[in-house]
Amino acid sequence: MAQRIGFLGLGIMGTAMSGNCLRAGFDVMVWNRSPGPAARLAAEGATVAKTPAEAAAHGDVTIVMLTGPEACEAVLFGPDGAAASLGPGKTLVNMSTISPAYARQAAACVRETGAEYVDAPVSGSKKPAEDATLVILAGGREEAIAAVEPVLLAMGKKVARCGEAGMGSTMKVTVNVLLGIMAEGLAETVRLGESLGLSRQALLDVVMAGPMANDLFRLKDPMFRVDDYPAQFPAKHMAKDLTFAVEAARDAGANIPVLSVLAPLYHTLVDTGLGDADFAAVIKALG
Ligand code: NAP
Q1: Which of 52, 107, 129, 210 could form a disulfide with 82 if both were Cys (CB 3.0 to 4.6 A apart)?
Q2: Residues lining ligand 1, CB < 6 A?
Q3: Which amino acid residue places its CA nearest to atom 44 of ligand 1?
Q4: pLDDT tens-digit profile of 192-251?
Q5: Residue 194, SS3?
Q6: Which fold has domain 4-165?
Q7: pTM, to two decimals
């Protein structure tokens, strides 16, 4: 079992996930672009790298949890990037939500060093990251996924095997389409009801009492009732992920009548300063 981890990216998710690796007994070296989060992990027992390359030199497994493709490109392949320290016997696990096309490109570049590449984006947000109950959507060679599974299970409750490298990212962006549609569906229903003279509270009472109630609506219902949207999953990430889904769908020639209007709606939130609000704030994009 791999014991040493280099962990790159200590945002909302990476901080919680690297903390769980430490608590599971792994020897973790962390790196983050801005220093504050790494200092907090050091207090929990992590060592702190000065560069991504130093963290990747430390790790049998190097984990990446960054915003998206641009950040991954800089941290993996830029100056002092992790790729310089990768090679045979090492594995790069990219848990960031990135486009399937970029995942395939990154996998090819990492494999040129002789290292394995596993793409492993996650389903679940801050609370599951803290509780180590994420669902990890893994793509890569079967043996490579099996070798890092103990590390993945320090951060999540399930590893779903999706196929080759890139298919984990494909699963992630595809499933997020349903998430985006469901939140927009509830938001649009609320807006329509109000336009037709219904009370928001009464309408939500009816939705939540019937067969349409579900775990997602149970999470968002309190937000709609008070019209306040503290982030569980920020709208800026939903907008990004839906753009990746649109790109993948276009590459495949898939029919996406709802997705093609949905992605711009979530981007409207980012453009109007609501990117850090929860994605249920999509109701604000409906006027
Ligand atoms: P976040 O809090 O915004 O953190 C982003 C991280 O990326 C930070 O460590 C940031 O460094 C780093 N970063 C951004 N641009 C960079 C660059 N050019 N060079 C180096 N580092 C850079 O994001 P998060 O919520 O942890 O999400 C991380 C990933 O998980 C995203 O792909 C997101 O879509 C996905 N995800 C998030 C959630 C969620 O609920 N938050 C759920 C599932 C999946 P600094 O600290 O220096 O800014």
Answers
A1: 52
A2: 9-14, 32-34, 37, 65-68, 70-71, 74-75, 96-97, 122, 125-126, 233, 237
A3: 122
A4: 999 999 999 999 999 999 999 999 999 999 999 999 999 989 999 999 999 999 999 999
A5: helix
A6: Rossmann fold (3.40.50)
A7: 0.95
